[in-house]
Each structure stands twice: as C-alpha cells, then as structure tokens.
Write a structure and sequence with these properties.
Order of helices and strands: HHHHHHHHH
Helix content: over 70%
CATH class of the largest domain: Mainly Alpha
Protein name: RNA polymerase sigma factor RpoE
Shape: globular
Pfam families: Sigma70_r2 (PF04542), Sigma70_r4_2 (PF08281)
Organism: Candidatus Anoxymicrobium japonicum
Family: Belongs to the sigma-70 factor family. ECF subfamily.
Keywords: Sigma factor, Transcription, Transcription regulation
Number of domains: 2
Structural class: mainly alpha
C-alpha cells in the first residue's frame, strides 16, 4: 500500500499556523476548526489502520483530543498536518495493541474458574481497584452532569449508549458533522474537568 502523505499547501499551512496559535491559548473555536479541517483525512487513515469504521470514528476523536493537549509541544519543525498524521499513526498503533490486550483478557475470563483462581493478594488488589473504579465513575458522572445539555446528550448517546455518529444524528435531528463537533467539544470540556483527578487514578 503506498504511503499516505500529509497534504502540503502553503496557504493551508499558513492558516493552520494561525489556528494552532489560537489553540495554544485555549481557543475552543480554533480547535474545532482544526478538527473540521482534518477529521475526514484522519478518519480515512484510521480506517486503513484498523479496518473498522467504528474504531476509526473513536480514534479520530481521541487523536484530536491528544493534539489539543499536546499542541503546546508542536515546534513547527514540520507542517501541522505532518505532525497530526504522526500523532494519528502512533495512536492507531497503540489502539490496536490495547484492543488486542482487551480481547486476550476477555478470552481468559471465559476460562474455567479453576484455571483462573486468584490468590488472596490478588483478591485484595481487585477490591482496591473496584473501589477506585467506583469513585471514578461518580466523578465522571458529576463531570457529565456539568456539561450543557447540547453537549451532554450527544456524548452520552455515543459513549454510554454505544450509538454511532449517524444514529446520534438521526435521534437528535442534527447533521452528522454537528454531532461530531459537539462530541469533540464535550470531550475537551470533560478532559479539563477530570484533569485534577488523573493522578489518583494511576
């Protein structure tokens, strides 16, 4: 398969630089513009990497969240689009590794009980993890409740109900692009709210 090259256009690169500078200051509109500009290309790349359009949709959103968080580290040595493609490629590879690991864990859970009997220490660790997970769920639920309804509804339908973007769009009677944009905004706001809790979940 021929390598996919990031688009090179001087006018586009200049516009990207202006948007990146605004994104560095926390300008959410600039973040959305970058997302809308490159989301189709990122989606196509993720589809090629994973072979799944559902996985590609999630990867596309997560890649842009990572880009927004890391935009301060973008030094401009390459074009923004080249840097974005690199982030997308790396995350797609990580995603596939994590997906494979999850499948292995699920496979182990299907084994007979005697083959996966844990020690008392493992049971204790499992209980501790369960408590942390329960606390985390409450914090996330509270953060979700603080989102405006226009952002909370599409995010909840997609993330919690497992609906695809087209299904959410049909239910809310919104264009698919609007749904993607609102979910993107919701994820940014959610990430900002949950940032102080990251250390205790590690």
């Amino acid at each position: 398969m021929p390598a996919m090259n990031a688009p090179q256009d001087n006018g586009l690169e200049d516009a990207d630089e202006a948007l990146v500078e605004r994104a560095r200051t926390g300008d959410l509109t600039a973040c959305e513009e970058l997302f809308n500009r490159y989301s189709n290309q990122m989606y196509s790349l993720a589809c090629r990497m994973t072979g799944s359009d559902t996985d590609a949709e999630d990867i596309c959103q997560e890649v842009f969240l990572r880009v927004i968080r890391k935009v301060g580290s973008f030094k401009g040595r390459s074009s923004f689009s080249t840097w974005l493609y690199r982030v997308a490629m790396n995350y797609s590879k990580d995603y596939l590794r994590q997906k494979k690991r999850r499948q292995e864990i699920l496979s182990q859970q299907d084994d007979p009980p005697e083959s996966r009997a844990g020690t008392r220490e493992n049971d204790s660790t499992g209980l501790e993890c369960a408590v942390i997970a329960s606390e985390a769920r409450l914090i996330v639920q509270d953060a979700l409740a603080k989102l405006p309804p226009s952002l909370r509804a599409p995010l909840a339908l997609h993330e919690l109900e497992g609906m695809r973007y087209r299904e959410v769009a049909g239910l809310l009677r919104l264009p698919v692009g609007t749904v993607k944009s609102r979910i993107f905004r919701a994820r940014i706001k959610l990430a900002e709210t949950l940032e102080p809790h990251k250390e205790q979940w590690r």
